[in-house]
Amino acid sequence: MSAWLPTAPCMPRACVEASAAVPARAVPRAVLRLTAVVLLLLTGIVLSPLGARLPASLVRRWCRSIVRAAGVRVRITGAAAPAGGLLLVANHISWLDVPLLAAVRPARMLAKTEVRQWPVAGWLAARGGVLFIDRDRLRALPDTVARIAAALREGAAVAAFPEGSTWCGRAQGTFRRAVFQAALDAGVPVQPVRIGYRLAGGAATTTPAFVGDDTLLASLWRVATARGLVAEVEVRDPIPPASRPDRRSLARAAQPQTAAPAWIHSVLVA
Predict the structure, then answer these.
(1) Of 110, 112, 109, 160, whose CA–CA distance to 135 is shortest?
(2) What is the spatial order of strands in the sheet that 108-112 belongs to?
(3) What does the pLDDT look like over 201-244, one tens digit per residue?
(4) So where are the chain's domains?
(5) How many CB atoms lie within 10 A of CB 256?
């Protein structure tokens, strides 16, 4: 089993909250939301040749707009992301996590090679400088770590989901340590980010989760037809590069800061 190929027990039928039948009047709204998401992605494709010349503030607003267009309110709190080389690490629940992390600070994403095959999004990811990981080839791991470290040394931010798989929000996977070795090799800080989803009334929800054998289209439709979804992003203080001696202790320091509060677990399990 590859170190990049972890699995989660979460499955849509068991873990994702079943929504009631979508009323007919909600369908036009959902279609408009998905249309807006596609138009924003197309805008990104048009502007992608400009690459790093685009202002970071514009990229952050564009990423927030993608999430808002899907009908999800965005709330970002906590520390500011520092300039220079930075490893952003977060828990992983949904496809929405990707633009949410980029809304904190535009970064080169770490993604499995399968993402390259996604329609539109895969092409956009490749043009956007995503670092693709072949999770089936353990021998490729040192080269992947070296490429991440090189990007960090050049002053780029790299965003990763060290769990290696999406979880529904009821629990969290163990952080894989390899990506933290890249931060140590490059001598850059690690900034943990906690992502969570709730309803406008305050109750935690698993509706945005994209887990197991769920399809991207099914997840997109579930989010677009939902009402009152809120994405909460808590940016934690950076962990200085010299504060931990090895990747194991660095991963252990970062993971608890991305975990959901205990009350969320109790609400979701109840």
Answers:
(1) 112
(2) 72-78, 229-235, 190-199, 86-90, 157-160, 108-112, 131-133
(3) 888 999 999 998 898 889 999 999 999 999 999 999 999 988 99
(4) 12-269
(5) 12
